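look at this:
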Amino acid sequence: MPASAAAIIFAKYPQAGKVKTRLIGTVTAEVAAQIHAICLRHVLAVCEGIDDLDVFLAATPPDADFSEFLTSGIQSIDQGSGDLGERLSGVSARIFELGYRSVVLLGSDCATLTQSDLQTALATLSQADVVIGPAEDGGYYLLGTTRYDARLFEQIEWSTERVYEQTVERVREAGMQYELLRVQRDLDDAADLRALLQADAAADDTIVRTTREKIMACVTESWNDE
């Protein structure tokens, strides 16, 4: 019997030179991959411990070994083929078919995501059709829905600053009510890395503090080795 809600984390395997490429130059390709892995573990940790929530890792490439990330209860599924919109749509449809009342899509780039953010999103879906967590770069770090609608993933200029704006347009066209979470910053480039490491950490929860410390240690060690 599934939980009432499912979280789906979309993630690439942390292979050097294939992930966090906009960090390369500020750090090595190997360190960029380590940061990617830390961010993925962060989002997984946020999802763990949430009551009545099943967690899926939508992985790519399909033949990569994600076993080190699959702690108890986390299921790995293939992202499928096509562009990002087609993959988000396809995975969402598959998970809704399993009987969940709500599905939350998450990236693996937001190192400041908290369990409170995710709990707020799930609670919001008891009152709204859609909940969106906007990212500072114009995308989103979270999209939750109470029903599958392919229109939410169509006619979107993926990997641009228009993703959030166009997603809201699609939500309205589908006649769905939506609510917003707080705006957050993904960790994609050198400016994002500096912002994360220089931010006031006083208000961090335990998971965010641990992630920030791991990234700081990773970066500091690499700079000391140069």
The mean pLDDT is 94. The longest strand covers residues 5-12. The chain has one domain: 5-225. DSSP finds six helices and seven strands in the chain.
